[in-house]
Amino acid sequence: MRRPFAIAAVAGIVALAVAASGLAAGTTATVKTRHGKLGTYLVDSGGRTLYLFEKDKTTKSRCYDACAQGWPPLLTTGKPKASGRAKASLLGTTKRRDGTRQVTYKGHPLYYFTADAKAGDTKGQDVDAFGAEWYVLAPSGKKIHGH
Prior knowledge:
- The chain is built from 2 helices and 10 strands.
- By secondary structure, it is an alpha+beta fold.
- Strands 4, 6, 7 and 8 form a 4-stranded antiparallel β-sheet that branches.
């Protein structure tokens, strides 16, 4: 009787990991905005906060392996879409080493933070990890300072 539960649990974990990465078969990422204590900042279609990594000096990601486990990239299989105050003209993609496409905003590759448990969490704001700081982005594409 435990086997079906274990299979279901593994399937659930895989589904959560895929959802957290922003990639599912045929999924086109949407970047929108949310207003909170940090001001108006970028989030995904489910309201999860998106971050920039200051170590990324170009559109190419410098966050792989352990870094990408803690800060999963926002991935897309199609051209990303903008909603709310996010600007479609600032959206793009960059190819990751594994061939997947990561969403960029004003040239910044976008990431989630695994410690953000729910929509609106900003626990990754101003964190120094993997050699640089992480920040939420304003609709202008600039990092937002503050906690």
